[in-house]
Amino acid sequence: MQAFYADHFVLPLPPGHRFPMRKYSMLRDAVVRDVPGLFLHEAPRADDAALALAHTADYIADVSSGQLDAARQREIGFPWSAEMVERSRRSAGATIAACRTALAEGVAVNLAGGTHHAYADKGGGFCVFNDAAIAARQLQRDGNVRRVAVIDLDVHQGNGTASILRDDPTVFTLSLHGEKNYPFRKEASDLDVGLPDGCDDDGYAAALAGALDTLRARFAPDLLIYLAGADPHEDDRLGRLRLTMAGLARRDTMVFDFALSQRLPIAVAMAGGYGNQIENTVAVHRQTVMLAAGYHARYRALDGLPAASVAAAV
């Protein structure tokens, strides 16, 4: 299975900053050690033309040239730096690359990404550029897919993704999130499922099953982009849900089964994770990558490429 990384582009954050930057290098070390047959690639850089598929020209220029004022930097949660710009471009490029690879191989992974709080004209919640929205539109522009579904299972609602794609009938946005958690002003996804604080494994699985049934009934995608946040885990200091490692494995398995049952290629991004112990966050992400690798093998055992990839290749 192919995976794309950008963890060597490190933001210079002040001491005590709450964003767990180390989790990305720790995750790469873990999957190199524990996932057989994984091929790692440095994330390509998303250029201005790709970013402009989801963001305004003024916002791209302000980010790139360091013209974000203090208020906009606070909303993002990072001080501006050249490293922030480069990492954000690489994160978007990694999701584009994972989507393109998934069309050929069934499953591919971005070992970062899931920056779903970025709007067309601003960032927020540690998100600068919205990789899922950019990748969905880039793959459509490539001409290989017409319809994309974004399955966002980060514990926080994908408000930026919902806003960017609100009037786009070719992209279906599904967000399963903590109802009372950040962002406190939600946007309207195509399907929003708000969960109560303390939701456990069984409650989450039931809600996800219903959401996937609704997606199946309402939309026929050619490609899935899956935001597999680690923050529904019971140890997450920002999550407020109570999913165990087994519950998160069930979540991932349900999504991969949904994709495999319809022969849909799926690109996976890691999204959020803020465990009291960073090792727990890394363990959740590692588990997702391991499960993705298992589904990649199942795809490759089928007769040829995924259905959407076959259509694109003809």
Automatic annotation (TrEMBL):
Glycosyltransferase is among the record's keywords: no
N-terminal signal peptide: none
Domain (Histone deacetylase) ranges: 24-278
Gene Ontology annotations of biological process type: epigenetic regulation of gene expression
Keywords associated with the record: Hydrolase
CDD domains: HDAC_classIV
Keyword Hydrolase part of the UniProt annotation: yes
Molecular function (Gene Ontology), one example: histone deacetylase activity
Domain of life assignment: Bacteria
TM stretches of this protein: none
Family: Belongs to the histone deacetylase family.
UniProt-listed PANTHER family: HISTONE DEACETYLASE 12 (PTHR10625:SF19), HISTONE DEACETYLASE HDAC1-RELATED (PTHR10625)
Identification of the protein by name: Histone deacetylase
